[in-house]
Amino acid sequence: MTAIFYILAGIMLAAACYVAVSRDIARAVFCFFGVLFAMAGLYIFALADFVAVTQILVYAGGVVVLMIFALMLTDKQLLENIRRGESSGPRLFRARALPSILLALAVFAVLLQVITAVDWGNMAWRHEAVAAGNRITGHENMVENVGVNLMTRYLLPFEVISVFLLAALIGAAYLARGRTNN
Amino acid sequence: MIPLSHFLIVGAALFSIGLYTVFSRKNAILVLIGIEFMLNAAILNLVAFGRYDRIDNEGQVFAIFAIVLAAATVAVALAIIINVYKQYKTIDPDKIKDMKY
Could you report the predicted ipTM of this complex, rounded to two decimals? Predict the structure, then answer.
């Protein structure tokens, strides 16, 4: 069962690498879709099933569709490339991208150093959480938990984010309007 | 089941790949996808640590808010990209060099 976690993590990282190096933009957006689906699987392994379903609904179902539409609206060559069947494989190594690769590797090395230098099994907050029964086992109803918390403890951020979504919606619709009547 | 550090390592790897995507791609939409990778790595961290907080459930609720915020960010950013395309006829970040005035 835990092997599936590593398989999903491998799929996700491979798809992310394909997005990072691929020359074909449409394929990159579809591999982004694959990354988001694999992330939802990883959330389920972290016992966060409501977050996983929210990720699929909002990210994989909304954000990717938005990006595909924006891609079709901003790239004149895209559909002609697909129709002509151009094969443009991933370009694995470009000398111009060497500083970016070094920077990304340096950031990863710093994060890895922090993660491996900590003894995660003996943290004080972890012992307190286990002692107070505060761990999420797989047996709760997470939807009820998240719902009750959103309505009681996190009510103010909930209301603020609904107003924020309204503002973002109006802003995006205003920005993307056609300017024929200017 | 899965140790906490494994989640964090996967998140760190995705963050680095997102950082590389932001710096090395010549299409503004792919830069946006790189930013989304970094956001997803952070949300994975939140959810991994949220396993130790059942009563307040801060990790998962924060993760839900972060997903919603990222979606709103993408909507507004794509509207801006479409406007830039109408003005410059390209969305290569290297070629958009003029300020309005």
Answer: 0.90
